[in-house]
Amino acid sequence: MLANVAFFTLGLFALVAGARSLVRGASKLALSLGISPLVVGLTVVSMGTSAPELAVSVGAALDGRTDLAVGNVVGSNIFNVLFILGLSALIAPLVVNAQLIRQEVPIMIGASLLLAAFAVDGRIGRFESALLLALLVAYTVFLVVQSRRETQATRDEYAESMPHDRAWDRHWAAQAGLVVAGLLLLVLGSNWLVDAAVAFARAFGVSELVIALTIVAAGTSMPEVATSVMAALKGERDIAVGNVVGSNTFNILGCLGASGLAAGGGLPVPAAALAFDLWVMLAVAFACLPVFLSGREIARWEGGLFVGYYFAYTAFLVLAARQHQVLPAFSAAMLSFVVPLTIVTLLVSMLRKQRAAR
Asked: Which DSSP category does 335 fall into?
């Protein structure tokens, strides 16, 4: 058991280090080739923070661990919104950029709905996987084209967020080396993490899906945790929100698209995920709208609510896996009291803030 913990920890460190190396190398290489900092920020950096999810899901699919591949993406998207945004909002109320409400959140919701439509028959086929990847390419091209219309002030803001030049990595060879090193660490870390996760599932007597939805999902989301929390601490609160929304879109289009193609015959969707977790992910995506629209910020109490819901979701998974006798009472309390009360509270808060703004 200690060996599995060690491999899981090493895998996690390798994934985080690999993502940092990949983002730094790819960002500086792109800048060396004359690509604007704004485009790099919208594409390379945002996708780089999702590299661990991609590495783990594709690695699991190649290894035949399709439950891990699907559970990692679904669990990461739930973790990103409920835990990362919630924790960041507890540090400081998060500002929500108007473009996020108008464009990025609807795209994230659209990707979530598309995934649900593809998964409803219990499998994400090869054609559907290819379509997800094609949509990711189209979305990236759209962002690049859109970035050309941004103001110089916005370009300068992104330029300041890019890694500063240092003597040792100014040359393109060093930058390419960082990219290669990052990719190698991601592959190595994903193998260690997947193997350890499977061992945990067997040791604890729970399914690989539950481990993927909880431990693996939280582990592969560490780059997003670091990025959003640091952004909140530095006062760059719109970046904290944008990082999560962009990561969720990439997880669905990129990670599941690539995993479905890697799996050969498509990606089977676990029955448990189709019955519950996939719809939780969809509900969490939709929940962003009333929260973001309420004064265009995520207040501390809303952040606390998000974190509380994440722990409640995790508790439900653990209780369900163990078939605990408390599960029926817990489920009834959540469905009949907590969830309806939360919906009413969020709607009232949104309406009040909209009236105050008028």
From this structure: I
| Residues contacting residue 52 through CB under 8 Å, at least 6 positions apart | 15, 16, 18, 19, 186, 189, 190, 219, 220, 221, 222, 223
At 294 the pLDDT is 65
CA angle 114, 118, 119 (to 5 degrees): 115
CA 232-94-280 angle, to 5 degrees, is: 105
- Report whether pLDDT(55) > 70: yes
Question: Which pLDDT belongs to residue 36?
Answer: 59
Bridge partner residues of 268 (DSSP): 123
Which residues lie closer than 8 Å to 275 by C-beta, 6 or more apart?
A: none
Of 113, 358, 81, 148, nearest to 252 by C-alpha is 113
User: Which of these, 218, 207, 167, lies nearest to 52 by C-alpha position?
Assistant: 218
Tell me what the mean pLDDT of segment 329-352 comes to. Answer: 72
Residue 124 has pLDDT above 60, yes or no: yes
Whether the predicted pLDDT of 77 surpasses 90: yes
Residue 162 DSSP class: S
Residue 168 DSSP symbol: G
HEC sequence for 107-153: HHHHHHHHHHHHHCCCEECHHHHHHHHHHHHHHHHHHHHHHCCCCHH
Q: Which residue is associated with the tokens 């739930």?
A: 78
C-alpha distances (whole Å) from 15 to each of 75, 181, 230 are 17, 11, 19
β-strand partners of 267 = 124
Walk me through the domains of the chain, giving residue ranges and CATH numbers. 2-357 (1.20.1420.30)
What's this model's pTM, rounded to 2 decimal places? 0.83
Whole-number CA gyration radius for the chain: 20
- Any idea what DSSP says for residue 167? G
* Residue 95, phi-psi category: left (phi > 0), alpha (psi -120 to 50), beta (remainder): beta
Q: Which two tokens stand for residue 312?
A: 């409640």
Condensed to tens digits (0 to 9), the pLDDT of residues 130-156 reads 999 999 999 988 877 776 665 555 555
Name which of 197, 221, 209 is nearest 54 in CA terms.
221
The confidence score (pLDDT) of residue 182 equals 81
- Tell me the C-alpha distance between 184 and 71, whole Å: 23
The number of beta carbons lying within 10 Å of the beta carbon of residue 334 is 17
